[in-house]
Structure formats: structure tokens, C-alpha cells
Design goal:
The protein has 579 residues and is mainly beta. The chain has 6 helices and 34 strands. Helices cover 11% and strands 31% of the residues. The chain binds a DNA duplex (13 and 14 nucleotides) through loops.
Length: 579
DNA sequence: AGGCGATGTTTCC
DNA sequence: TGGAAACCCTCGCC
């Protein structure tokens, strides 16, 4: 399906549309009408209490939206049913939850998207336009030594032109239920362009050739629990490093799956949660020949790539006892390291003088920072994803690192059942402005609640595209763009998808059916979804039993994989046993 | 097929 | 500081 851009109405229109918002929800209800008699809208009027409270909570809100929110607050909260009790706030008179494929927020809660009180997601201006509230960056005015480094060494790498974005918007191939637990990380092989590596919550490592769709392996004996990060060895791309919540870093041969444990931070086994170390961030500094990784107590470790031995003492780089979530080495300046953590900071370090408290910059966030990445080409910008539902861009050259140059509200809440969302750069975009990130909240797409993957232009805050597939009903928190081709890999629940740009011309291209492999309990016959237990070779859409056709595409070709790898028990071998 | 519950999480008190 | 609550647009399993 083509990338869908959201309604492009500008903000003032939103105020007016507040009325239409309720129309919107009721219109989606119209669709549902057939089966949802219970809810036949008695528009309730006995909601004075709630209404008052909405007005109260209104007082605490911020700034520019006042006018708008006043309008909003005069209206009654969205009211669904009289008898029902809201599962969120336990009050009567309204009910939060899905109404058909549209989710109705509890009006007593702050907006689920921007976290401001006084309105719900439905009427949030950020929902209508991602660029809402994105203001021009403050110009830099401070100059210190780091600024000088950036100016001298990074600025020449900044490209001038901004090309048209190419969006991979159609599922080209997939392995459905590839992993036995949800996917936690993805990494394209840097030189073997068809190889995608994936990690899951169980610690398994997937190696998949997505062009020869059936060539896939899962190594299950490398880690004991969550595989948090994969990095290929730039000096030997047949070998990869992985960091896991089991407290080990492994060095694994891609072909054989034979791995060497470089370090085990829990040599005495499980002694309780206060001592169990987990490794999240991992990166390789090729110039310095070190693998760096960090644990959930705030410490950074280094391993010498030649001797595979730990170097020196661990260094406290984030608040003691707090998790270091991510690490990234600057692609241009090998001395610069970026870290982010649960202490709400992303920090820039000089590798030459790495010691506690010596960070060059501390980038403050309101909540936990899920990820922080230098821009891939110039290394001069920083992209962070924070649990306050905001993507931030920090520009070391055109802005100041004292405050973000962009703050884009985007739905990527923390949820214990989901891998943390991470906004990722497009490594091919010479303008370093295209970013991909999965979306938490769903959109009612022809009667189905889908969670798109968003492409955002961080130079404007605009949503360039939102891609989705009617068969993918699960959230896709893990996304990676290919380093050389217009390919997106997304991880959603246990499945992995490869997206490519849709053919522009409808000319006779032999309608190459998309290649989908189904693993796991594919023998079930009752579902139609990619993410759930199903095979989906029939096309008639029973997605939400509303009789609406979600897609006019031809049936997918589905094949059940029975391939097994002898040496290592793979997931599909397990499932084929069951068969 | 509906409901239960897992969850090495984060926040708040 | 440690323990409990979180109310959430999950997902897989019984």
C-alpha cells in the first residue's frame, strides 16, 4: 500500500475539527454499527463531574495551545456509554478502549500522545501534524573546544542538497513467526547485502538471506536471555559481537554459530535482581580496536579486539545503579562516544579521557532515553528517542548542544511487552534528515487498527510517510534501513518483514508474488494476520469480521518452511517436530 | 475463543 | 531507599 500521509490540515483547522473529531469517532462507529448495538449512543448528559474535572486539569497546561484547549474544554468529554465503567479511571459514564478499530482515550487522563492534559489523542494537534510545535532551532552562540572540533572536522562532511526521499512501502518478503519470542534488534550485514541479522527476547540470533527467503537459521545457544545488540566486526565481517541481558558479550561465527564468550558479568549465577548484570549498549570503535559495552548499573566496559580480553576497570558513565541503554561511536571522529541511559541523559564523551564525570556534554531529557545515535554520514547531529514520546535532534553545528534543535512529538510509549522504540537514521540520506520509527498508537485504516511505521523528516518535523500492511496488526518497534539499498527491515512481535518501494509502473512486471515464509504454528488455519498465529494464504479478509475488504491485492504465496539445521536446533526445527 | 498472566520495567511514594 | 503500583492501543497460551 502506498505511503499514507496524514491529513495535512494546519493547526488552526484542528480547533475546528474538534467537532469533527467526535464525528470521526462516531463515523467509525457507524461502520461498526451492525454488531455493536449495546453502545447505541445515548449521548450522555449527566457527566457534569467529569466535565468539571476536565476543566480543572486544563489549568495546568502550558502555553500556546491555550486558546484551542479552552475551546476543547467547553465541550463535553467524548462519551461512549452510560452504563459502562471506564477501565482506565474506573468512573462511570464513559469507556476507554477500542470502538471498532478506533481507540477512545479516557478523557480523565493526559493525552496519550503528547502527555499534556486537557485533550485526548483524538484531538491532539500532534496527531494531526507531526510538525506541530516544531520550532526553528536556536542558533548557537557558545564556543568551546568541542564546538571547535565539530566545526573543523565535521562541518566539511555536511552535504548541501536534499534529495527526494524513497520510501520502502510494500512488504516484499517476510518470515512470519521466525523467532520464538519478540524481536529485539535487527542489523543488516555490512557487506553481504542480502543478510539480515536479528535478535530476540530469548537470546536467539537469526541469520536470514531475505533474497533467498528460505535460507534462514536461528542460533539458540549463544545467549540465555534478551539479545540487546548486534554488531559485525568491521575487520572480519564473518564474525559478530552480541550483548545480552544474560550479562555476556559473545563473539560468534556467522556461518557456524560457534561463539566465544568474551565476558560474563554474572560468574556466580543468579544472586537476585540487585546483582544481576545485563548488557544493553554495544558498539565497536574500529580505529581504537575496542568493543565497548555497558551494563544496567551505569558502567562501561571495553574489550580489546585483538586479544578478546577485557581492558582496565569498568567506568561509571551514567547514574550509579541505572541502566545504560545505548552506546554509539561517532562515524567520523573516533574519539567521540555517545551514550544514553535510564538517568534521562544522553552523554557525549571523549574516548581519550573516559572517566566518571568527564562527559563533554550532557543532553537532558524528561524521561528515559531509549536510543541516541550520531548521524551516519557527518556525525554532526544526534538523534534521540525518549520515553516522553518525543524524538529529539541535537545539531552540533547549526544548533547548540545545550538544547535540542528539534523536538518532535511521536507516539512510542514504553510498554513492558514491547521492545523499546528507537528512531533510526536513514544511512543513505545525504541530507541526514530522514528518520524511521515505529508508531505505538494505531490508526483506523479501513476498519482495521494498524500501527504504521513512520518516516519523519527531522529538518521540518513532517511525517513523510507512514507505511503499513493490513496483515501486520502488531506494533513494529524495531526498524532498520539498509545501508545501501532502499530497503526497510522491521521487526514486529516474532516476525520480520522486508519492505521495498512499490513498483511505480504497473507495466507487465511479472507480478512476482511476495515471498513469505511462515514458521511456528503455521498449521493453524484460523487467522489471517502476520503477527499472530495464522497462515494467511487465503485473501478474503476476515480481519475484523466487518466484511470490509482491507486489500485488493492478490493472495500471498505462502510456504511453510521445514528446513532444519542439524548442528543447532533452530526454531523451525522445533516447530516442525510438532507437526 | 475469551480470559489470564507474564513481566529481570519505570515511576512514585 | 525499597517496595508497590502502574490501568497500558501485548501476546501467547490455556
Amino acid at each position: 500500500m502506498a505511503p499514507q500521509t496524514r491529513r495535512t490540515s494546519s493547526f488552526p483547522k484542528v480547533v475546528i475539527e474538534r467537532d469533527t473529531d467526535s464525528e470521526e469517532s462516531s463515523s467509525s462507529e457507524e461502520i461498526d454499527d451492525g454488531d455493536d448495538d449495546a453502545v447505541d449512543q445515548e449521548e450522555e448528559s449527566d457527566e457534569e463531574e467529569e466535565e468539571e474535572e476536565v476543566v480543572k486539569s486544563d489549568k495546568s497546561k502550558g502555553n500556546e495551545e491555550k486558546a484551542k484547549e479552552e475551546i476543547v474544554s467547553k465541550k463535553a468529554p467524548i462519551t461512549i456509554s452510560l452504563k459502562k465503567v471506564c477501565k482506565v479511571c474506573k468512573r462511570k459514564g464513559h469507556e476507554a478502549g477500542f470502538k471498532g478499530a478506533t481507540y477512545i482515550d479516557c478523557p480523565m487522563k493526559p493525552c496519550f500522545l503528547c502527555k499534556m492534559p486537557g485533550h485526548t489523542t483524538m484531538s491532539c494537534p500532534h496527531r494531526v501534524a507531526t510538525e506541530f510545535g516544531v520550532v526553528p532551532a536556536p542558533r548557537r552562540n557558545a564556543h568551546n573546544s568541542l564546538d571547535f572540533v565539530f566545526e573543523r572536522q565535521l562541518r566539511p562532511h555536511i552535504p548541501k542538497m536534499k534529495p527526494a526521499f524513497v520510501i520502502p512501502d510494500e512488504v516484499q518478503s517476510a518470515v512470519v513467526r521466525y523467532h520464538s519470542r519478540r524481536v529485539t534488534c535487527l542489523e543488516f550485514h555490512p557487506t553481504k547485502n542480502n543478510i539480515l541479522l536479528s535478535g530476540d527476547k530469548k537470546g536467539q540470533l537469526g541469520v536470514w538471506d531475505f533474497e533467498k527467503v528460505y535460507e534462514k537459521t536461528v542460533y539458540g545457544d549463544i545467549h540465555g536471555c534478551i539479545l540487546n545488540n548486534i554488531k559485525l566486526n568491521p575487520r572480519n565481517d564473518g564474525m559478530l559481537y552480541t550483548a545480552s541481558s544474560d550479562g555476556t558479550v559473545s563473539y560468534t561465527d556467522l556461518e557456524t554459530g560457534i561463539s566465544l564468550s568474551l565476558t560474563n558479568l554474572n560468574p556466580d549465577g543468579w544472586q537476585g535482581p540487585n546483582s544481576w548484570k545485563m548488557l544493553y549498549g554495544l558498539d565497536i570503535n574500529s580505529e581504537k580496536g575496542v568493543v565497548i559495552f555497558a551494563d544496567n548499573f551505569g558502567y562501561l566496559y571495553m574489550v580489546d579486539m585483538r586479544s578478546n580480553s577485557v581492558m582496565g576497570e569498568p567506568i561509571l558513565i551514567h547514574k550509579k545503579g541505572s541502566k545504560v541503554v545505548g552506546l554509539h561511536c561517532n562515524p567520523i571522529q573516533p574519539d567521540l562516544l555517545l551514550s544514553c541511559g535510564n538517568d534521562h541523559f544522553a552523554r557525549i564523551w571523549d574516548m581519550r579521557q573516559l572517566k566518571t564525570g568527564s562527559s563533554l556534554y550532557d543532553l537532558t531529557h524528561k524521561r528515559v532515553v531509549n536510543s541516541a545515535y550520531f548521524s551516519p554520514l557527518s556525525g554532526s547531529k544526534i538523534l534521540t528517542t525518549s520515553q516522553d514520546n518525543r524524538i529529539r535532534v541535537w545539531d552540533s553545528i547549526f544548533g547548540s548542544l545545550d538544547s535540542p534543535s528539534r523536538e518532535i512529538v511521536h507516539s512510542h510509549d514504553f510498554n513492558r511487552h514491547l521492545t523499546a522504540f528507537r528512531a533510526e537514521w536513514d544511512p543513505k540520506d545525504p541530507s541526514e534528515s530522514l528518520v524511521v520509527v515505529g508508531r505505538y498508537i494505531s490508526e483506523n485504516y479501513n476498519g482495521a487498527a494498524l500501527h504504521p511505521i513512520d518516516f519523519i523528516d527531522i529538518s521540518t518535523g513532517q511525517l513523510v510517510a507512514e507505511v503499513m500492511d493490513p496483515n501486520i496488526t502488531t506494533i513494529s518497534p524495531v526498524n532498520k534501513l539498509h545501508p545501501h539499498y532502499d530497503i526497510l527491515a522491521s521487526g514486529s512481535s516474532r516476525s520480520i518483514f522486508i519492505w521495498k518501494p512499490k513498483e511505480k509502473t504497473e507495466i507487465e512486471q511479472p507480478k512476482d508474488e511476495r515471498k513469505i515464509v511462515v514458521c511456528g504454528k503455521a498449521e493453524k488455519k484460523n487467522g489471517k494476520k502476520f503477527g499472530g498465529d495464522s497462515d494467511f494464504d487465503s485473501d478474503d479478509d476476515t480481519h475484523n469480521s466487518k466484511g470490509k475488504n482491507l486489500t485488493s491485492k492478490k493472495p500471498y504465496s505462502v510456504s511453510i518452511s521445514c528446513s532444519t539445521k542439524k548442528k543447532h536446533e533452530t526454531y523451525e526445527s522445533k516447530s516442525s517436530k510438532k507437526r
